[in-house]
Amino acid sequence: MAGRGTGPDFVEALARGLDVLTALGDGPMTLAEVAAAADLARPTARRLLLTLEEIGYVGLRDGSYALTPRVLRLGMAYVGAQGLWDVARPHLEDLVARTGESSSMAQLDGSDIVYVARVSVPKIIALRVEIGTRFPAAQTSQGKVLLAALPPEEVAPTLAVPTLAGLPPYIGRTLDQLLEELAQVRARGWALADEELAPGVRSVAVPVRDGAGAVRAAMNVTVHAAETSVDTLLDDHLPHLLRAAGEVSADWALWQSRPHAEASGPGGTLASWSTRTSGRPG
Known about the structure:
Layout: H1 12-24, H2 31-37, H3 42-54, E1 58-61, E2 64-67, H4 72-82, H5 84-99, E3 102-109, E4 112-119, E5 134-136, H6 141-148, H7 152-159, H8 175-188, E6 191-194, E7 201-209, E8 215-224, H9 230-256, E9 259-264, E10 269-275
Antiparallel strand pairs: 1-2, 3-4, 3-8, 4-5, 6-7, 7-8, 9-10
């Protein structure tokens, strides 16, 4: 991990600190385990851990280091800046009320999806999901939607990025088979994952678009395969999901286009009047 920066302004110490935070995402670790996971010398890992502990992002207990709740500020700051939760929450809640099933929103990060919004129901399911959870994109309905939104020539390089989800490698479709499925997803506007991520987990997902029409996230309905058939998922739940995602997209476009003013100087003179989507004065 360390030493991969090439730009003149690259700060290796910052990158190493982020490597440590990423490593601790798998759970509490000793100093030696952190050093090994982040590919760092023990003295370097120790200094980084002590720094992160001092500023509140890491805690030490019983000889092991672990992330603290302060780390949530990093992820939630991103979600808040995008307006995702404020926009999506009422629609997710309404969708869950209509279907009786959990619904989430995710975005693509390398070859993984990352959950950025979720409303769940108390059902036993094989995988625990919360804000910040990562799964390999190719094994999920949301991931397929997001991969299908990429230019076809970018899919293979994206999938080549090592997963950070901590799950075993997926053995299934070839790249050509996946590309064929993504073409179908792109044409019909939704994706299905039928027990591909874990036994008993079945889901359908659709795109969420920004004001320019670009796919920025994916929204799903997840069911237990033993309780809900594929036909029920597609015939009964998918129409509600499509409607909810359309409403989220419309509200997100409005949120992005809201006017805002930027003040500069001690007198508070307006420097520009712009919109979130364009970023241009006008």
